[in-house]
Design goal:
Order of helices and strands: EEEEEEHHEHEHEHEHEHEHHEHHHEEEH
Largest sheet: 8 strands, mixed
CATH topology of the largest domain: TIM Barrel
Strand content: 15-25%
CATH superfamily of the largest domain: Metal-dependent hydrolases
CATH architecture of the largest domain: Alpha-Beta Barrel
Shape: globular
Number of domains: 2
Number of strands: 16
């Protein structure tokens, strides 16, 4: 979206979280021109900033905090977040409906403050079509990085999206085909998941297959994200040198959760980023608790709530230990899945804090770290001169209360100011 280079916008926030320092800064100003950040400096120097003939526009937010736009590394834009499973969406909808839903979800995401997100699994060409529609200005939304259909074994997790491939030769060909279609990164279902024909407690691919996927991807400059719901899959992904592990759950082949110290040490020693997706479980628990308060729960719902509580406690304890060990966490909501609709990536940011990250580190994990994990930190993720003007102003200081991340005042994507969720609600 081309922006007017004849306007120099100078933003004067109460505080700045630039993604580099360990504390919010006061007395700072940020100037944007066209689609990029032109200058970051002292507010006292903003009046003397040379506009080179451009019209200078001052934007003051004395009670607000300016930060880089949020970056959700894990979404599924085809999915509705209304509790329906992937199998149900496969049966209920066609690709045209899925693409329309993706467009709606993208608009919801940008209005909530997410300026970049990864689509980690979509049917056939729908993810690529969404990206093309965004590029053409037909759809409003964040920068969307797309994997297309995840690579999965026959009958594996998300097989219905169109990415089945078995054996070294087939996975090599699939990676090359996805890159040909425009994949920004490669997603692997390294274990099973919620798909009924898969097993979440066993590794799906051999290490040789995973290494072939990673080689082909890295050889073409594409990072690799691996869905791992069990310990065997985590270790296989580490053996293959993937860039990020999604879920990263310590379950054994018998389906029992067991914290694995040896695997934890491997993760801490590696450069891999971990995406806990704890906000998804919290969203499901919050929903069941609301139902319990409204009408009570059925026996099945009570059992689901109890299972969710146990898995949530295991996950928080696991990631608290991993944080203490020194792993690198990255924010990704898995929104669209289960009962986690688009528009509240902030819930995942808060889950990172509950697991042990400081508030500022949770913010960095949801702005800077995804850009580092995807290899695009030279252009987004922090508030620095020369980077894309993907910025967010929230009311209050999220380094004191992460709930303030939900109170979005202004969203910029590439220098263009877009309507926030609150503004869209008022206009409706």
């Amino acid at each position: 979206m081309p922006q007017d280079n004849n306007i120099l916008r100078v933003i004067l926030p109460g505080k700045l979280i630039d993604g580099i320092g360990t504390q919010p800064q006061e007395g700072k100003a940020v100037a944007i021109q066209g689609n990029s950040i032109k200058w970051v400096g002292s507010a006292a120097d903003a009046d003397n900033l040379d506009s080179n003939g451009a019209t200078k526009e001052i934007m003051e937010f004395p009670g607000g905090t300016l930060l880089a736009g949020l970056f959700d590394i894990h979404t599924h834009t085809n999915m509705p977040g209304d509790g329906r499973t992937g199998e149900q969406i496969n049966l209920d909808d066609n690709d045209e409906i899925r693409l329309l839903r993706s467009a709606r979800n993208a608009a919801t995401a940008i209005a909530s403050g997410v300026t970049t997100m990864c689509d980690c699994g979509s049917w056939n060409r729908t993810g690529f079509a969404l990206k093309e529609g965004l590029s053409a200005g037909l759809v409003e939304g964040p920068r969307v990085l797309v994997s297309g259909p995840p690579l999965t074994v026959t009958g594996g997790h998300l097989y219905y999206m169109g990415g089945e491939a078995d054996g070294v030769a087939e996975v090599r060909k699939m990676v090359r085909n996805l890159v040909k279609q425009g994949a920004d990164f490669i997603k692997i279902a390294a274990s099973g998941g919620s798909t009924s024909t898969s097993d979440p407690y066993r590794a799906a691919y051999s290490v040789d297959e995973l290494k072939a996927i990673v080689y082909e991807s890295h050889n073409r400059g594409r990072p690799v994200l691996a869905h791992c719901r069990c310990t065997d899959a985590i270790n296989a992904a580490l053996d293959a040198d993937v860039d990020a592990i999604l879920h990263c759950s310590f379950y054994d082949n018998d389906g029992q959760y067991r914290y694995d110290q040896e695997t934890a040490e491997r993760l801490a020693a590696s450069e891999v980023y971990l995406n806990p997706t704890m906000g998804l479980g919290q969203a499901n628990r919050d929903r069941l608790i609301r139902i319990k308060n409204e009408r009570g729960l059925t026996e099945d719902e009570n059992q689901r709530l109890e299972r969710s509580r146990v898995s949530g406690e295991n996950s928080r304890a696991q990631f608290r230990a991993l944080i203490e060990a020194g792993v690198k966490l990255v924010g990704g909501s898995d929104c669209g899945w289960s009962y986690y609709p688009f528009g509240d990536f902030q819930g995942e940011v808060m889950s990172l804090h509950r697991a042990g990250l400081s508030r500022i580190d949770a913010i960095h994990a949801s702005t800077r770290s995804p850009a580092l994990a995807l290899g695009i930190a030279d252009s987004i993720g922090t508030v620095e001169a020369g980077k894309q003007a993907d910025l967010l102003v929230v009311n209050g200081d999220p380094a004191q209360d992460l709930e303030n991340l939900r109170n979005v005042d202004v969203v910029f994507k590439g220098g263009a100011r877009l309507a926030t969720t609150n503004e869209r609600t008022v206009s409706d």
